[in-house]
Amino acid sequence: MKHPFDIPESKKIRLIINTDAKNEADDPFAIVHALLTPRFKIKGIIGAHFGTYRTDTSMQESYDEVVKILDIMKLTDEVPVYKGAIHALPDEETPVSSEGADFIIEEAMKDDPTPLYVAFLGPITDLAAAYMKEPAIAEKLTALWIGGGSWPDGEFEFNLMNDINAANVAFKSTIPLWVIPQNAYKLMRVSLAELAVNVKPYGEIGAYLFQQLIDFNFDMVEKYIPAVIERAKKAGHEIDPESLSDWPKGEMWHLGDSPIVSLLLDDHQYGYEMKPAPRITEDMRYVHYQNKRMIRVYHYVDSTFTLQDMYAKLKLHYVS
Q: Is Hydrolase among the key words of this record (predicted)?
C-alpha cells in the first residue's frame, strides 16, 4: 500500500496479525488501522478460531473476513492470508497443526534484521503451537496478546476461554510477551456516533467497518445469543438469557483489539509493568507462583492517541 508519508527504514518493523476476525466487530478496525500504518511491514494475516459457542467453522469465517477486508482495500495481492488452527490445544504438550503456526516459524527463522512482532487478537493457539514445534522462535520475535482477565486476579475473558492451554504454554515459554488484559483493552471505549463521523465517510472500507459493527449489534440480539442458548441446551447446560443481555450495550463499543497498533507505534512506557507470569486455572484465575519468567502486563492504553491515529489515517488515505 502506498502511504501519504514515509518513515526511516530503520524505524520499521515486521508484523504478523493473528485474528479471530469474524468473532465480533472490533478486529476489522485493528486490521485496517494496521494496514494503513507506514511503520508496519505486514508479512501476513492469520485467521484464528474463536471456539464453537455459535459456529463450527470459526477459523474459516475469520479467514474469509480477512480476505474480504483485503479485497475491499484492494490489497489482495499485497498481503498473504493463512489459516490458523481450527480448534484449541488439547493439552499443554500437544501442538495442533496449522499453516499459520508454520508461517510464524518460517518468518521468525528468516535472516532478517528487521524486528518481528506477532499480534494476537483472539486465542493464542498458533503461537503456542509454533513454539512447541520450534522453540528457537522465542529468540526471534515479540508477541502481543489482547487477552486474559483483569490483573492481578483474573476472571472470565473470551480470548482466554478459547484456549487456556495455549495461554499457559505462552506464559511459561521464553517468548518476549506483551499482555493487554481485559482491564486495559476495555479502555478503548467509543460511541457509534463518533465512528459515524470519523470512520463511515472514508472510503468503501470506512463504510464497511461502520456497517459491520451496526450489523453485529443486531445479529448479536437476533441470531447469536439464541444460538448460544440453543447450543448450551443441547450440551446439557442451561443459560439464563438475562445473563447475556448486557452486551453489546447498543450505542457504544470497545475497540479492544486496536491497542496492537498504538502500542507498536509507542510502547506506553508508563502504561505497563514487568510481572512474573502466572499460571491460569480452568476458571481463568491467575495463580502467581514464580518470579523468574517475566512478561509485560499493560494496565493502560491511550485511547485518544489510538483512535485519533486511526481516524487520521483513514482521512489521509480516503479523502481525495
A: yes
CA distance 124 to 100: 11
Is 185 a residue whose pLDDT tops 70? Answer: yes
Domain locations in the chain? 11-318
C-alpha cell at 56: 463450527
Residue 274's pLDDT band, with cuts at 50, 70 and 90, is: very high
First to last CA, the chain: 16
Measured CA to CA, the distance from residue 212 to residue 22 in angstroms comes to: 10
Q: Give whole-number Cα distances, 128 to 12, 63, 106, 138, in Å.
A: 26, 19, 15, 11
- Summarize pLDDT for 11-63 with one digit per residue, the tens: 999 999 999 999 989 999 999 999 999 999 999 999 999 987 778 999 999 99
Model pTM greater than 0.90?
A: yes
In whole angstroms, what is the distance from residue 288 CA to residue 278 CA?
Answer: 5
DSSP 201: T
Q: What is the pLDDT of residues 219-253, one digit of tens each?
A: 777 666 666 666 556 656 565 666 556 666 779 99
Q: Where are the alpha helices (DSSP H) in the chain?
A: 27-35, 58-72, 99-108, 125-133, 158-161, 164-172, 182-185, 192-198, 203-219, 225-234, 259-265, 303-318
CB 123 within 8 A of CB 50: yes
For 168, how many CA atoms within 13 A lie in the half-sphere containing its CB? 23
3-state secondary structure of 225: helix
